[in-house]
Design a protein that fits this description.
Layout: H1 2-28, H2 34-39, H3 41-56, H4 83-124, E1 134-138, E2 144-148, E3 154-156, H5 158-170, E4 178-180, E5 189-191, H6 203-217, H7 219-230, E6 232-235, E7 238-241
Antiparallel strand pairs: 1-2, 2-3, 4-5, 6-7
Helix pairs in contact: 1-3, 3-4, 6-7
Length: 242
Amino acid sequence: MKRKTLKKDRNSIKEKTKRLAIMIHEFLEREITEDYLKEHPEEIYKIKDMLEKNLWLGNIGPHDPDWQFESDECLMDVPELDVDAIHQDEIDTGAKIIVSFHEFLKKGFWEKFKAGVLAYNDRYGDDPLLSENFIKIDLGQYANIHISFGDGIHFFSSSLEAIRLLMDLIQGLNPEQFKKCADKDCGKFIFLTTKRRKEYCSVNCAARTGERKKREADRAAFNKYHRDYYKPKRKGGEIKKS
């Protein structure tokens, strides 16, 4: 069993190495611009196919709007549409998507990773076990990736993992389950876990809204009620509220 597991791990590393080599050569270490892709539209579909085979591996939704190369008009069966214009729109959209992913992966991650791993190699030479060094890749205000080079390369990113797991919790739910508290002075979020109708996040918000509706419906009567309620009356030398 252990021998089979080791063989499976070796095959997995070999397969990942092959995919990464293609990614580096055909994407990460290339300079890709929208103008170049528009002049060479065949490259758009070549890169798209390469990414789907070596990066996504089926892990991107077919309806993901960030990976839709066809324009809305391309999907419509309307004879009078300008086919050439539709084709050009598809090229423009594809070029923009490819360049967007290229900048995100290359500038947002790959260049920073390269700098870190090269600095580590310069410091520790051919003996990576001398020290377990960490580098941090800053992906913005709320997300970081930490990389360890001690015993192989390992990634740690609780922030990205938290987002992924939160997305997994939300995936497949109905939009109607998410709504805003009906009290206009509240603004809190309500998540409906049952089919029971719920408009307010708390009884306080419900009561406050009820009071507001009464006041707006008959302001004179509402003001009189409160004047009478809070009007002090003297009884036995003490001030009491009715």
